[in-house]
Known about the structure:
The chain has helices spanning 28-34, 91-103, 113-120, 126-137, 141-151, 154-178, 185-219, 233-243, 284-297, 315-323, 344-351, 367-379, 394-415, 420-438, 444-452, and strands at 6-9, 18-24, 36-37, 48-56, 61-71, 82-88, 107-108, 221-227, 262-265, 268-272, 280-281, 302-308, 329-334, 355-358. It is of the alpha/beta class. One of its GO terms (cellular component) is cytosol.
Amino acid sequence: MEQDTITAISTPLGEGAIAIVRLSGDHAITIANKIFQGQDLVEVSSHTIHYGKIIDPIKEEIIEEVMISVMRAPKTFTKEDVVEINCHGGIASVNRLLELVLANGARLAEPGEFTKRAFLNGRIDLSQAEAVMDLIRAKTDKAMNVALKQLDGKLSTLVNQLRQKLIETVAHVEVNIDYPEYDDVEEMSNHMLREKTEEVYREVEQLLSMAKQGKILREGIATAIIGRPNVGKSSLLNALVQETKAIVTDIPGTTRDVIEEYVNIRGIPLRLVDTAGIRETEDIVEKIGVERSRQALKQADLILLVLNNGEELTEEDRKLFEAIKDLEYIVIVNKTDLPTKLDRQEVEQLAGKQKVITTALIEDKGIDALEAAISDTFFEGELDSGDLSYVSNVRHIQLLQQTLKALDDAKDAIDANMPIDLVQIDVTRAWELLGEIVGDTVQDSLIDQLFSQFCLGK
Ligand code: GDP
Ligand code: ZN
């Protein structure tokens, strides 16, 4: 079957030094050849790169100097013929190049269509395709590591092992039923089923418990900085932002825009939320009242409440404590360079089991302790990319939860001495649910929807 040839700009639009227009499909090479002045691309060997000029064949006009990579199927990202045209990327010239490619027989790719083809052509499985998307969006190196592991197939391997265990058990039980060599086939099968189900159950549970951390790495900790005027909220924000380094990657096709509202704390992305202006707010309680500010603040995973060490605690401070009392927060006693007027004991008491950190932001003091406190709050100790979660994707988390439920049903059925074929329905369901993670048992409509979330050109 002939695959139409798709194309898109596969680097972020903007000021980048180079831009890449990518083509994939049966005519990728011939289309590129029509507009290329240089070597005959149809004749060159696969996986080679060529310097030349792009010409408009109709106007016979030179558009750009480029480097063209020619990669023939099947050893390419999509398993189709792929051509990448590297040019110096002003927006206008890249667009002109893209138009020329379109005019010569390619079709504009839908968002995610390159990755979708890689999936449909069996180059990667669904969890790996999703990892490509995560990689593009990763905010910190650690989040990127999670995505890379997933792309590497680590999650797929784990999930496939679990599925294998389940299917073997089902097969085994069926054999036992069909060829009863023992008197107590039923009992033995039940016992084995119970054991295997329990085993897989525990492993899925483990994957899930790591998933929360993965999700935080992927989406960031929604963080709000609150406090009275002049306590040092802006200073804190600046100190946090200074810690942030832009992330660049040299993995092809994953150039990412740096997203400014994220700060990187020891590899954990903090997403500074600004719902109803609570990111850095002085009079949130004043303005909307304790109850409503509590609602607004609920949007945050973490609240940083800043107090002034050089002043006594005020009614306003106490109201802020009241507004966040059931939420996750860290108290920052700032301006410790000033003589202490704040009643620290009262602060400790109000904070209860939440952490209290002291800082003198004006002297750059205390940021380390704050970072450690944030890291501890969400990860209980140092974050080690060696044992990071492979699961970070909400879809995967939901499927794992449903798998647990199915396995739980199976265990209940076994314990209730239900007929073995009823138990098998639940086990098979668990097998199918795990299959959806890697895309083995997944619906077409879901696939379309998943890939439509991708960026253009990936
Ligand atoms: P915000 O109104 O809560 O955002 O507070 P700012 O960050 O704008 O700080 C208010 C003032 O307090 C500024 O003049 C800061 O330089 C000063 N400030 C911030 N942190 C400290 C500190 O640790 N010690 C002292 N003495 N002054 C600080
Ligand atoms: Zn401020």
